[in-house]
Amino acid sequence: GIRIDLMAYLFGDILAVSRTDLAIIWGGATLVVGLIGWRWSGLLTSTLNEDLAYASGIDPKREKLILTLALAITVAVAIKVVGVLLIAAMLIIPAAAARPLSRTPEGMALTAAGLGAASAVVGLRAAYLFDTPAGPSIGSFDEWKKWAFPASWKDVNPPVLPMLDPDGDGNDNYNEFIAGTDPLDMFSNLKVTRLSRQGGNQVRIEWPSAGGRQYRLERSVNPEAGYSLVQDDIEATAPSNSFLDNLPPNQAVFYRVAAKE
After folding, report:
1. What pLDDT score does 153 carry?
2. Nearest CA among 155, 191, 148, 149 for reference residue 170
3. Sign of dihedral through CA atoms 234, 204, 256, 218?
4. d(CA 173, CA 153)
5. How many CB atoms lie within 10 A of CB 3?
6. Nearest CA to 148 among 174, 166, 172, 115?
7. What is this structure's pTM?
8. What is the structure's pLDDT at 162?
9. Helix segments in the chain, DSSP class H
10. FRET pair for 39, CA 20 to 30 Å: which of 81, 128, 232, 249?
């Protein structure tokens, strides 16, 4: 008999997407963008006011049909990626988040598309880091907020965006999420906090760390000339890490540390 993976249809399985599926998805996306671009003015006028649409010589019923067709194509190509249950989230949440950030309908459409793409990228990265299902991770901004922000920020509205920098420390939310630092505290940064000479030619380098992360330590005699690798894949020993490095006597060096994605 025929076996159907019901969970894949409900929650999607982006990791099982084939080249044929990608071709169908790109074809569907191109068709939807073409439809929206072709009928943008009519769709916008019909959405704002049906009487205004009739006065402008536009048939609102036809525009609704085109919009329904575009939604149907979107749902059909997205089932494989995020599943039936999460398609509504991907359709509604980016648009709702883009509304307070936009001044024009065109700007709202572009912002919503950007947020949807960012949600997919962050969701995939989070799924890889935390071993969670890729579909639900992509479809839920709430998961992003839960992983990256304190409990008091779980109900933030509009959803917190990965590319913003609310604490103004020069690191956006996504990079702070990767580093395990607090995105709401400008003093919570991933950086070398202490250097101390040990016996012989050894130097101890210390920095704050977060569980489940790996770090890369680099050094340089002249930062403008670039850094060289000291040690890679350093496992976190939260709340802080330290590393012993061997240096020639009386040599001044600069160190930097980065979290691995």
Report:
1. 47
2. 191
3. negative
4. 13
5. 5
6. 174
7. 0.49
8. 67
9. 6-11, 19-38, 40-48, 50-55, 60-82, 84-98, 105-130, 134-139, 141-148, 173-179
10. 81
